[in-house]
UniProtKB/TrEMBL annotation:
Recorded family membership: Belongs to the GMC oxidoreductase family.
Chain ranges of the Glucose-methanol-choline oxidoreductase N-terminal domain: 218-329
Domain Glucose-methanol-choline oxidoreductase C-terminal stretches: 428-552
Entry's transmembrane regions: none
Highest taxon of the lineage: Bacteria
PANTHER family: LONG-CHAIN-ALCOHOL OXIDASE
Protein name: GMC family oxidoreductase
GO molecular function, one term: flavin adenine dinucleotide binding
Organism annotation: Planococcus rifietoensis
Keyword entries, A-Z: FAD, Flavoprotein, Oxidoreductase
Length: 570
């Protein structure tokens, strides 16, 4: 028998960047907010011993426990989907801060082209640039409309950067803090790309270049360049994360509470409104109902989609007919690039998660695609994130996989190897989607989410083209041996690639082709909001966090408006 708790104005499912932003903005307006987080509480003090590569980067201390909940995967509809038994291609965060705790801190705004990609591509290249099976669509919002929310997120996070990229959208103000240190390694990339006629610039970073106080009065420290960012929390409080910014801001209002170890299994509904959520205490397995005037799904891409599916809210996407939108347009990323082996030793073991330089000359529609068999592109970067010894063992081609020669090459090349990599955009395809598995369930008896995904011809063509560009850059940098990344074939969920999953709860201007409107308000349930990278109608050439943060501020504004006036916001 479930225990019904006191009703609140707003309940969020998950307390990461999106849940924290929603909570802070709504609580400051006097709304009573409860955040339900299925993981545990944590803060900067918990990371004093975080420089343990094996514990955090190999055994995934901060990640989801797949023995309790996982996903099933297949490449195509004619295959049997099987569960992920250990984390591989992507890493699902858990606990206060979510993936915002263990991220690298690379913070981008998607390009103006991204938000109107269908319209802009058709206008420039014709409607048949990509075959019909690519389900490309606009987002229902423009870059200019979203720009104030980008600006607000960057000021909350204190992002360090420089406005020297000629290809991105116009900014209403400069970055709050200056760019990070330009190291000798980054200068090598800068010189090479400049020689090739490109425009390098310092990567926008949430590893702050200097101490900063954000508009809510939260203090963020300066980066120490220790080289332990992705998969780790920051013991200095210098990598901006929800637990040092928006969560304290929400708590300071007195209008916000968090309940930990609270795994939401259903969104409750009556007619065309939601009434709250049902959750299970992960320690005691007690069941609770949290009533709320507004429900906001703020958990990871996979879980937001799953909760809508198991709660039977919205029309499931059918790849046979193309009808329905829930689960549609799942997209990932490709990772073209090249490695270079040098004679000189370099301090590759020092760095930070977002210490890097980038070119956007091959991102979005910055270059002509008329004679190319793909659209979009990638940001191409060299990052100095810190080469940790367990996971970093770069070796030239034809090196034996064991023995004395293997050991000698490992020692020789550890400090003599650099990589240039691209985050390749992923276009949606009718056969790449999310659904519910008919066989497997989680520890709470809820069906697992099923991922059907494979790389496409678009992905393979883009990967090949961009790898060739990366090889050219590495050769210009003076490497004695250059190795381009191998061509991609079928997607494999086993090796780690990137945690930049998008789609499944896409936004748009048409209820027939999207799950939520441009305030992230559900088309079918006006007091339900769904916010995260699942709203992306395709994946771009950047990390998603900056765009997710902007959407969260847009969503918060919508929730406040709805709480005052009710009704549809568009």
């Amino acid at each position: 028998m479930a225990t019904t708790l006191d009703k609140v104005d707003v309940v969020t499912v998950g307390v990461g960047w999106t849940g924290g932003i929603i909570a802070a903005e709504c609580a400051k307006e006097g709304l009573k907010v409860v955040g339900l987080e299925r993981g545990q509480e944590r803060s900067t003090e918990d990371y004093s011993m975080v420089h343990d590569e094996y514990r955090y980067a190999i055994r995934y201390e901060l990640m989801q426990d797949l023995s309790k909940e996982t996903i099933t995967f297949r490449n195509s509809r004619d295959q049997k989907a099987l569960p992920m038994r250990q984390l591989g291609s992507f890493l699902l965060g858990e606990g206060l801060g979510g993936a915002g705790t263990h991220w690298n801190g690379q913070n981008w705004r998607f390009l103006p082209y991204d938000f109107e990609i269908k319209s802009m591509t058709d206008a420039k290249y014709g409607e048949n640039k990509l075959p019909a099976e690519y389900t490309l669509q606009d987002w229902g919002i423009t870059y200019d409309e979203l720009e104030p929310y980008f600006d607000k997120f960057e000021k909350t996070a204190g992002i360090s950067g420089e406005d020297k990229n000629p290809f991105w959208g116009k900014r209403s103000s400069d970055y709050p803090t200056p760019p990070m240190k330009k190291t000798p390694l980054l200068s090598k990339f800068e010189t090479a790309t400049s020689n090739l006629g490109y425009t390098p610039f310092m990567m926008p970073s949430a590893n702050l270049s200097e101490a900063y106080e954000n508009p809510d009065g939260q203090q963020i420290a300066a980066c120490q360049y220790c080289g332990f960012c992705e998969r780790f929390g920051c013991e200095y409080g210098a990598k901006t994360s929800p637990e040092i910014t928006v969560v304290p801001a929400a708590r300071a209002t007195g209008n916000y509470d968090i309940r930990f170890n609270a795994n939401v299994v259903e969104v409750m509904k009556e007619g065309d409104r939601v009434t709250g959520v049902r959750f299970i205490d992960t320690v005691t397995f007690e069941e609770f109902i949290q009533p709320a005037e507004v429900v906001v799904l703020t958990s990871y891409v996979m879980n937001n989609a799953k909760l809508l599916m198991v709660s039977e809210i919205g029309q499931m996407y059918d790849p046979e007919t193309g009808e329905g939108s829930l689960g549609k347009n799942y997209a990932y990323q490709i990772l073209p690039g090249a490695s270079g082996f040098f004679d000189d030793q370099m301090n590759v073991f020092m760095g930070a998660g977002a210490l890097g330089m980038t070119i956007d000359d091959f991102n979005g529609d910055s270059f002509d695609h008329s004679d190319l068999d793909f659209v979009h592109g990638a940001s191409i970067s060299m990052t100095q994130t810190g080469s940790r010894p367990i996971a970093s063992n770069p070796l030239p081609p034809d090196t034996p996989s064991w023995g004395a020669d293997f050991k000698k090459a490992s020692i020789e090349n550890y400090t003599r190897t650099l990589s240039v990599g691209g985050q390749g955009a992923s276009m949606p395809h009718r056969d790449n989607y999310l659904s519910l598995d008919e066989t497997y369930k989680d520890v709470y008896g809820v069906p697992l989410l099923q991922l059907t995904y494979n790389f496409t011809d678009q992905d393979r063509a883009l990967h090949k083209y961009l790898t060739e560009r990366a090889v050219e850059i590495m050769e210009e940098m003076g490497a004695k041996t250059v190795v381009g990344r191998a061509p991609i074939s079928d997607y494999d969920i086993v090796p780690y690639q990137t945690t930049h999953n998008t789609g499944g709860t896409i936004m748009g201007g048409d209820p027939a082709t999207s799950v939520v409107n441009n305030y992230l308000q559900h088309w079918d349930m006006e007091n339900l909001f769904v916010v995260g990278a699942g709203n992306f109608a395709h994946n771009g050439g950047y990390n998603p966090t900056g765009t997710v943060g902007a959407l969260a501020y847009r969503c918060a504004e919508g929730i406040i408006k709805y709480s005052q006036d009710g009704g549809s916001l568009v």
